[in-house]
């Protein structure tokens, strides 16, 4: 795996820590800003909504810009957003800083995922995404508890300063280690990129991703009160159980990333099924302290075991628009992260109790599992539909795949690496070109920076 992919994972660690750390900082923020805890909680919702809206918008806005330059700009804006949050004199300024940070975070995720995919062979896509998602998993294990510790020991603003410092480290890594991704001979056009939304497999992937994420976070968002009010654990256990969920997430991401490239639908089916079973068990045994702790770990494992496959699936069916594919996946995950907690809150407000959030999450999972089966029955072979593949508008072969001339003058399919074809229009595979002293795409005769 290229070092640059791990640099992207480090960057995601900073992004993920900022996204989730507010869950442990709401009381001091509310006290300092003179607002209620629910109002402070809107800062979390603002970030999630900013991710949903910002991912596709920034993907479109940066479509024709150099990838590395875009990543540098976005991580810089994100870091400045953390500094603005640390210095925010009012709640309104803090709110705006969270929205700006969310937009930059969403854009970095979208572009970073496309860059990671561009740097590895087709059969290593899920592993590359697992490294990026691993940064998010480690953020749950280390970053979020550390943010809570800093907030309790030195004030909530110190957590923002820490994330700003981590962003600066990530910026140095991106600037020095991410290779220049050559621009395509023909600049991307918005009309061709958005053609992916004419493919029903793309929409199925969005539905599957949103439901898989939403089902888990429907219950996970209310795990703390379930642990204390239903299982009877003391509040001191809550951080440890949340960290255990994060440990399961790291393990699940590692396993899923290694298996998903060869057995993508197998991972989707087994991972979503396992999460459904664990959620049902959590609902049934919520009053058993040992069972709840074990199930928290298993739920983190199964949820993040599925994540690399969910990411890779979108790139497989929307390869003609890799940046927009990354943005769409980011938006889909955050739709789940928004809708799941909303559904959980709805069943709690209806007086069904905290354990009902696990039943609601399991129901979302079952619908997601059905969507996976539908995707398979419709011919989920991992490639774009012929209609979308042909939307590139370039001359192609009989199957609609555009072709470029290789150095010898013979036509060769775009985006091949090591004999394995990648989806049409996917970013060129970046390989070391020692003669030129820079990265060059395999299969393309004359790369342009």
Question: What gap, in angstroms, lies between the N and C termini?
Answer: 23 Å
Overall shape: globular
Neighbour order of strands in the largest sheet: 1-2
Strand composition percent: under 5%
The main pleated sheet reads as: 2 strands, antiparallel
Order of helices and strands: HHHHHHHHHHHHHHHHEEEEEE
Which class best fits the helix and strand makeup? mainly alpha
- Total beta strand runs: 6
- Count up the helices: 16
Low-confidence stretches: 384-449
What is the helix fraction of residues, given as a range?
55-70%
pLDDT averaged residue by residue: 78
Radius of gyration: 22 Å
Structure description:
The chain is mainly alpha-helical and 449 residues long. Helices cover 69% and strands 4% of the residues. It contains 16 helices and six strands. It has helices at residues 3-20, 26-33, 37-61, 67-87, 91-118, 125-154, 156-177, 190-193, 200-220, 223-230, 238-260, 264-284, 289-317, 322-349, 356-377, 386-389; strands spanning 403-405, 411-413, 416-417, 420-421, 430-433, 438-441. Mean pLDDT is 78; it is low at 384-449.
Describe this structure in a few short sentences.
The protein is built from 16 helices and six strands. With 449 residues, it is mostly helical. Helix 1 (3-20) packs antiparallel against helix 5 (91-118), helix 1 (3-20) packs antiparallel against helix 7 and helix 4 (67-87) packs antiparallel against helix 7 (156-177).
Question: Which features would summarize this protein structure in a list?
Answer:
449 residues; mainly alpha; two-stranded antiparallel ribbon; 16 helices; 4% strand; disordered C terminus
